[in-house]
């Protein structure tokens, strides 16, 4: 189709505009990676303008990933929290959603109200903190796994997906003598993989990126996840000694360490998201259908 | 929403037994509900009880039982506090600015992306603009801080290049809110655009063809076909955003602010965090939580009411 002149101006402007917006969003990430691999003398020589690194140095990474560094411990904690957290979250969300999707369940409306009410009114940061404290969960290994394990919104999304599964599939299985658990496990869950995957991924990002719950509930450095350690590295202009226990060497300039730490912490998500993006999109859409 | 088959309250004894039987029949489903039920009880409802400390001289050592009731003392203290009023105003302002930018940008982005006909280009752009959504505010805050730093930040280099004077932008009260709004849009707009992109994809192509036949330019097609087509989605998203007006973005602010910009950047959540966790005035901070929660609740109810009148489908 031939474009009129006005249209080709429109199209060209649009292409340019979108490219610029995309660059504004992407370049900062590229810039951080550049700074993290540029030797400090070149960085200061060029006044920080190192969009394209001309020479490379991995001293910051070496420093951060030295043997005995706190980073490993924190990474282990983040991975542990994420794995167990996502599993637990999926179990809690899916079981509740499955039960509440059953329209014949006596008392369903009341139970639903119980589950949804806290979307409207929450206790807030301090009452929650006090609760966690009185439950004896402060500074425990599982506090971060537990506190993020259920979101009413995700449960509702899953529930509306389960409700869309044809009733007669479940009924015929029941006639064949399958128990509820069996129906959930063999029929409903396999049919619900899109919603399970996308909500699982939402929880994954939540667990991996959480720092505020960690800030509130974890004060012991040996129990801190990577985001919290990163926050300390970024917030302090000099590195706290308890973070990097490998003593004896003078640390390289802070800015490079900070940027390298950012890359180390953000990299896993940055690598996986293009591959799992379509599940996230599905998740967003499943959510938006409900509105 | 389907109604629950409540226990039929017909005649005596038999129906009761039938009701219990009915409940017993679903025992496994109740069992499945139990884990989430316990979770919600512990982590959502216990904190509701914890609100009581806002009305007490709560003392950590003595706990609930040993602390004296204080009535509305802490609420009075709050409203007399300059810092609280400040945080309150900032929350509303920042929320409002973000509501405008964070609401308009994704729509424009979706409209613009929709006009791209080169599939690979569109896909690449889309993937690229999603990226920031997948990093935490600790990470993104660190990146922003680097970009804006006075000596080395690339933004300052650009300012110098165009003859301006470099400044440490993050400690300038005059710029802080702008930085919050812009970086929030940068981080979230790609992701937020998905819903609109999907809504546009669901529009009827025949309407476009008709518009083309009528000689509508691309711009006119956007204005008269696409935008009205996604108006319903826009309304729903807008409502959801208004409901969160009391949360101006804790993760972002706590990672970007500093004492130099408290006056313009301190929001209710950061105020509560500082007062409650750092200064350990738990009752005062809890009172602020209550104020925040009540206003948030009121907003949700009002907005839902309006939504029901507009398109007959509230959020709940």
TrEMBL record, chain A:
InterPro entries: MetI-like, MetI-like_sf. GO terms for biological process: transmembrane transport. Pfam families: BPD_transp_1. One of its GO terms (cellular component) is plasma membrane. Keywords: Cell membrane, Membrane, Transmembrane, Transmembrane helix, Transport. The keyword Transmembrane applies. The chain crosses the membrane at residues 12-33, 82-101, 110-130, 142-162, 183-205, 255-276. It is found in: Cell membrane. This is Protein LplC. It comes from Paenibacillus azoreducens.
From TrEMBL, chain B:
It is found in: Cell membrane. This is Protein LplB. It is a multi-pass membrane protein. GO terms for cellular component: plasma membrane. It holds the Pfam family BPD_transp_1. It comes from Paenibacillus azoreducens. GO terms for biological process: transmembrane transport. The keyword tRNA-binding does not apply. Keywords: Cell membrane, Membrane, Transmembrane, Transmembrane helix, Transport.
């Amino acid at each position: 189709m031939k474009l009129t002149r006005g249209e080709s101006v429109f199209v060209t402007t649009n292409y340019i505009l979108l490219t610029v917006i995309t660059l504004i969003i992407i370049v900062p990430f590229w810039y951080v990676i550049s700074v993290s691999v540029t030797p400090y003398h070149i960085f200061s020589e060029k006044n920080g303008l190192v969009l394209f690194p001309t020479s490379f140095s991995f001293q910051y990474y070496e420093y951060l990933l030295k043997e005995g560094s706190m980073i490993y411990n924190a990474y282990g904690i983040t991975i542990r929290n994420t794995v167990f957290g996502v599993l637990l979250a999926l179990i809690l969300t899916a079981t509740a959603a499955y039960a509440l999707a059953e329209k014949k369940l006596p008392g369903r409306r009341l139970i639903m109200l119980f589950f949804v009410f806290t979307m409207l009114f929450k206790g807030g940061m301090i009452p929650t903190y006090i609760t966690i404290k009185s439950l004896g969960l402060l500074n425990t290994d599982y506090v971060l796994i537990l506190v993020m394990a259920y979101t009413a919104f995700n449960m509702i999304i899953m529930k509306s997906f389960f409700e869309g599964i044809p009733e007669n599939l479940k009924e015929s299985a029941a006639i064949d003598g399958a128990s509820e658990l069996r129906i959930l496990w063999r029929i409903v869950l396999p049919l619900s993989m899109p919603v399970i995957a996308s909500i699982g991924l939402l929880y994954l990002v939540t667990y991996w990126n959480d720092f505020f719950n960690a800030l509130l509930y974890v004060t012991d450095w040996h129990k801190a996840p990577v985001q919290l350690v990163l926050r300390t590295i970024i917030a302090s202009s000099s590195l706290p000694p308890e973070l990097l226990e490998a003593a004896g060497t003078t640390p390289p300039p802070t800015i490079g360490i900070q940027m390298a730490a950012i890359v180390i912490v953000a990299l896993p998500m940055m690598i996986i998201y293009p591959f799992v993006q379509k599940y996230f999109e599905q998740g967003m859409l499943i959510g938006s259908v409900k509105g | 929403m389907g109604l629950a088959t409540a226990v039929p309250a017909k005649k005596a004894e038999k129906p009761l037994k039938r009701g219990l039987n009915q409940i017993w029949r679903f025992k496994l489903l109740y069992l499945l509900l139990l884990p989430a039920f316990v979770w919600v009880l512990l982590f959502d409802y216990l904190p509701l009880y914890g609100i009581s400390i806002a009305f007490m001289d709560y003392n950590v050592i003595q706990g609930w039982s040993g602390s004296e009731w204080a009535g509305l003392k802490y609420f009075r203290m709050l409203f007399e506090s300059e810092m609280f009023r400040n945080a309150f105003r900032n929350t509303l302002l920042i929320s409002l600015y973000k509501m405008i930018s964070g609401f308009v940008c994704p729509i424009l982005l979706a409209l613009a992306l929709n006009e791209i006909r080169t599939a690979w280009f569109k896909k690449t752009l889309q993937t690229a603009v999603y990226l920031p959504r997948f990093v935490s505010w600790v990470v993104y805050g660190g990146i922003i801080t680097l970009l804006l730093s006075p000596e080395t930040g690339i933004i300052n280099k650009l300012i110098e290049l165009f003859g301006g004077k470099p400044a440490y932008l993050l400690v300038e009260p005059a710029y802080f809110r702008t930085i919050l709004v812009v970086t929030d849009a940068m981080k979230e707009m790609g992701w937020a655009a998905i819903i609109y992109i999907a809504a546009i994809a669901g529009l009827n192509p025949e309407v476009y063809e008709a518009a083309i036949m009528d000689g509508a330019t691309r711009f006119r097609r956007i204005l008269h076909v696409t935008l009205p087509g996604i108006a319903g989605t826009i309304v729903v998203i807008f409502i959801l955003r208004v409901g969160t007006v009391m949360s101006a973005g804790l993760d972002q602010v706590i990672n970007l602010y500093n004492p130099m910009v408290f006056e313009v950047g301190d929001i209710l959540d950061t105020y509560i965090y500082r007062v409650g966790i750092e200064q350990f005035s738990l009752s005062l901070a809890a009172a602020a939580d209550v104020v925040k929660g009540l206003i948030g609740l009121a907003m949700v109810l009002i907005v839902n009411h309006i939504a029901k009148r507009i398109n007959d489908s509230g959020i709940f």
